[in-house]
């Protein structure tokens, strides 16, 4: 008998595990505490804006092999949008400069020798920062590896903050080095940017839910697992607020919740379990306009733009909605939200007016601030050491989540990779 795989948590890690196992002969049941799956990567209708928005912005790179495998299985590859080549438009508000980073497709970084394709004012010796990151030890911070100069300020610093959701003076160089190894060091073909064309749910959640239904997997929303019983080194029962689910000797469990929830469920059964206990927030602002802005140049090609020298870090344009993402946002936690929104709108006007057919209005029609207080674990060397692996002392239970030890920071790729690792740890599939 193959038994049942119970997945606790319907975020990206849990969905990735479910998609991987569905159709293999093992019955899959996903227990999701919320009304919908997706976790931090989902869409919803915002009543104030009266439109559908994402709870955050996620930029994928073509190097994210696990994400693209998942999208391929669920039939969602055609829901992505992007320029189709490794280009990234930037504006530096502090120095009134604009450029488009245009990476060479091959591994040979020819772009660094062509001023119109590289970061303005960068010096070739600054590339040593990449070598330092790739070779960084577990105790090293990103700031320890970065050489001063335009390459750091205009590319590596914003890249680091976006990838780690942690400031570079405390961020783990080893984690950022892992991202560099899987992207920049492989050449431009690994750095083609993509994002959800219509919404995160339309790309990452809805197709997966439909695929799981077609594979006879079951998703139980609004079902919170409140506890579990353990006997003889294995999970024997799952408890909800309404009832208990007895597990057979063939059943297996993946805990794919947040780190605090996982620790609450498992600490009494797994002595010595450590999980990350420091977290960073992400600030997202969505501005609705009466008419959809008409972008030009590389902003029109990409649909997004990096912003240096302000609070704003990335701006995405989708129809008549301009969305801004600010990572490592704990530093702004004490700021007045409305004043912060006014500052960011002013920055948007400075950043976007030159690349729009018509300038932005003095104020948006409506706005929504979405502050994810515990968006990711703080990607510091100390917190990275607290991340547990997928396998556990309980023979029928594995862990998944971007906070587990994937070797990557808390990204979509890391979350989905953790789901696959949990599946492999339980012996449900072997790594391909």
From TrEMBL:
GO terms for molecular function: oxidoreductase activity. Pfam families: Amino_oxidase. It comes from the Bacteria. Residues 12-424 form the Amine oxidase domain. InterPro entries: Amino_oxidase (IPR002937), FAD/NAD-bd_sf (IPR036188), SQase_HpnE (IPR017830), Zeta_carotene_desat/Oxidored (IPR050464). PANTHER family: BLR3003 PROTEIN, PROTOPORPHYRINOGEN OXIDASE. This is Amine oxidase domain-containing protein. It comes from Acetobacter fabarum. The lineage of its organism: Bacteria, Pseudomonadati, Pseudomonadota, Alphaproteobacteria, Acetobacterales.
